[in-house]
Amino acid sequence: DSGVTQTPKHLITATGQRVTLRCSPRSGDLSVYWYQQSLDQGLQFLIQYYNGEERAKGNILERFSAQQFPDLHSELNLSSLELGDSALYFCASSFMGGGLGTDTQYFGPGTRLTVL
Amino acid sequence: SQKIEQNSEALNIQEGKTATLTCNYTNYSPAYLQWYRQDPGRGPVFLLLIRENEKEKRKERLKVTFDTTLKQSLFHITASQPADSATYLCALGSGGSNYKLTFGKGTLLTVNP
After folding, report:
1. Looking at residue A100, what is its pLDDT?
2. Residues of chain A positioned with their CB less than 8 A from the CB of B44
3. Residue A64: what pLDDT?
4. Residues in chain B with pLDDT < 50?
5. Do the chains contact at B43 and A105, CB–CB below 8 Å?
6. How much is the pLDDT for B3?
7. How far is CA A91 from the centre of its chain?
8. CA angle A12-A16-A22, nearest 5°?
9. Secondary element (H or E) of residue B22
10. Helix, strand, or coil (residue B67)
């Protein structure tokens, strides 16, 4: 158990809908990262937040947005969903994300999103 | 564009042998490289980190090498066991204030008893 929690575990929805995925980082970790994993694309970095502020952006679509709240939990919002958005979405957390140049990331169990 | 290739999608070996997984990269100058293990339906788990100025790192039965000239990392599991069967991912980091990790697609290792 990494200490990172994600809800829900599974989500089934229809095209065009909007969903919110939630992540609670390990106690004491300040950074949260979101990843998308599909069979053909592998693990793709979406976005990172550090202590409430956006720190780095990856291949995140404009239909997707995220935020990190004062209690450090994070939410990933996916809107106007398409079939191709079906994937596993992982959240990871790390202590620093802003100092020493290296940081171990601890991954949550993921949310499996199915868009029908 | 940046590219990370892991030697093969799948590797099958016999229990007790050494498994060697390869991670090659192009158009990238990583400050460090990490290896993760991922079991089906679960999140990746960190195994080892090696920095650009380090040649080799060991942890129990695991060994990682990093050759910045060849742009390659090798990941070895000695005395492999069926419990080592999983997908192994390499991830490259730029360092500095950029903590973004770029992952390879992984190699599925199966250790047969």
Report:
1. 53
2. 43, 90, 107
3. 97
4. none
5. no
6. 85
7. 4
8. 50
9. strand B19-26
10. strand
